[in-house]
Specification:
Layout: H1 12-21, H2 27-81, E1 104-106, E2 129-131, E3 137-142, E4 147-148, E5 182-188, E6 193-198, E7 202-205, E8 212-214, E9 219-223, E10 228-233, E11 236-239, E12 241-245, E13 261-264, H3 265-268, E14 269-280, E15 288-296, E16 299-305, E17 307-317, E18 323-326, H4 328-333, H5 348-355, E19 364-374, E20 383-387, E21 402-406, E22 432-440
Parallel strand pairs: 1-10
Antiparallel strand pairs: 1-2, 3-4, 3-5, 5-14, 6-7, 6-13, 7-12, 8-11, 9-10, 9-13, 10-12, 14-15, 15-16, 17-18, 17-19, 19-22, 20-21
């Protein structure tokens, strides 16, 4: 019997299978597949880039929104408190009408030594003298290299921030931002502790369980509904009564039935100054960013990054009840306005001496705050339009012109673009949003 051994290579069925299904891709098929794959890859990369750009812009705008709102809330909160004490001191200020504005009485010389840092004047030789309310509120209109009413608000006259110096204008880290306004204001903070009795030697608290501490300066603020007094007392902690010091021949003019209260002067009289400062970017030390600074009694605190513009406009009321909006420079040169009468009290000539040059600040009824916040980091296209109430030269944007920020580092810029910010920084590729609010100076309202 003849047996035919099957050879593996001679299987006709397998050969037919290989002929039909075992062939590789042709060159054309490979090229088509690669083209389709490349198109898909390009689409995916483009989609990823677009999504990333949108996400970066949204995150940047969210950051600008948060910083802008927080900065605005801090500023408006302090403006509402400006010039305020725990007493009702506002009179009409109109000619022939009474009462006039009641000033703060000081039984302490606040013009010499460490007490001079409060920026409050010392005049007269009587037991007490009056501090005009005009020293409690002062604004400065700033351009590229100077500020009005004085070029140096950090060492300005009465009403300025006297706690050392704030940074000078410049373009380096730590400098104050050029073109950004400055605002200094004062007020008494806190409720104080209720007073039960006042003599020429002692102030006794109303509740024996209450305690008060007076710092090393030995100054206290005591007031009722009718007036505020600054006095010198013996320093100490957890005190139930205060021992008066200094040149006080009679008890301070305080009505204990009028909810009289006393507090430590250094912690209750607050001097706040707002300005913008250039700081190093913590993520890129070679890059500068603009930051809003709130300086309280000489201690500077960073409030919000990316605030590149800061402008204040003041609503003032003259003796004829006419209202108008002015910037700080216009308030200085607007001599035709019938400003409120100078404050006049027991030591009239001395009080007028300090009040007259800046009496217009007592006429401020409201403040319009404008600030421009950016995304801090690059988050937009090379050319980013934005709207702001003031132009790059500091003039009001009366035509509501949409301005264009364009950084030449990223290509040619259209004519009329802002290629350098008023601060001296480059615009980068940041989105910008304006924040503004109108705030009543409630303690100046008559």
């Amino acid at each position: 019997m003849n047996c035919h051994r099957h050879q593996p290579g001679n299987d006709p069925a397998k050969g037919l299978y290989l002929a039909r299904y075992g062939r590789g891709f042709s060159l054309i098929e490979l090229m088509i597949a690669m083209l389709i794959g490349s198109l898909l890859l390009v689409g995916l990369v483009s989609l990823f880039g677009t999504t990333s750009s949108v996400n970066r812009l949204e995150n940047g705008l969210a950051r600008a929104q948060e910083n802008g709102r927080f900065a605005l809330s801090m500023i408006t909160s302090d403006i509402r408190m400006a010039t305020g004490t725990r007493s009702v001191r506002k009179g009409s200020g109109l000619v022939g009408q009474a009462p006039r504005d009641i000033s703060i009485r000081s039984y302490v010389d606040l013009s010499a030594g460490p007490r001079a840092q409060h920026g409050l004047p010392r005049v007269g030789t009587n037991d007490f003298y009056f501090i005009p309310r005009s020293v409690m509120f002062r604004g400065y209109e700033c351009i590229a290299d100077a500020c009005t009413p004085t070029q140096v608000p950090e060492t300005g006259a009465i009403g300025g921030d006297q706690y050392g110096t704030i940074p000078a204008l410049g373009t380096s880290a730590g400098s104050r931002v050029r073109g950004a306004d400055v605002l200094t204001l004062r007020y008494v903070r806190g409720e104080g502790v209720r007073v039960g009795a006042v003599t020429s030697t002692t102030i006794t608290l109303a509740d024996p369980a209450d305690r008060i501490s007076i710092g090393p300066s030995g100054l206290a603020v005591i007031d009722d509904y009718q007036g505020t007094n600054i006095i010198s007392v013996q320093p100490g902690t957890n005190l139930t009564s205060l021992t008066l010091q200094g040149n006080i021949s009679a008890a301070p003019d305080v009505d204990v039935a009028g909810d009289a209260r006393v507090s430590d002067f250094d912690s209750s009289l607050i001097t706040v100054t707002y300005y913008l400062q250039l700081d190093e970017d913590p993520n890129r030390p070679e890059r500068l960013i603009s930051t809003l600074i709130r300086r309280e009694n000489g201690q500077a605190q960073e409030i919000a990054q990316g605030i590149e513009r800061l402008d204040f406009i003041y609503q003032v009321e003259d003796r004829n009840r006419n209202l108008r909006w002015l910037n700080a420079q216009e308030m200085t040169v607007a001599t035709a306005i019938n400003w409120p009468a100078n404050e006049e009290d027991a030591n009239t000539p001395a009080l007028r001496l300090f009040d007259a040059p800046i009496a217009q600040w007592r006429a401020v009824q409201a403040v319009e705050v404008h600030l421009l916040a950016n995304t801090v980091d690059d988050a937009a296209s090379a050319q980013e339009p934005f709207a702001y109430s003031f132009l790059a030269n500091g003039q009001p944007n009366v035509g509501n012109i949409v301005q264009m920020a364009c950084d030449p580092a990223y290509g040619a810029c259209p004519g009329g673009s802002i290629t350098e910010l008023p601060s001296g920084l480059s615009p980068g590729r940041m989105a910008r949003r304006e924040f503004r609010a109108t705030v009543a100076v409630r303690n100046n309202s008559g």
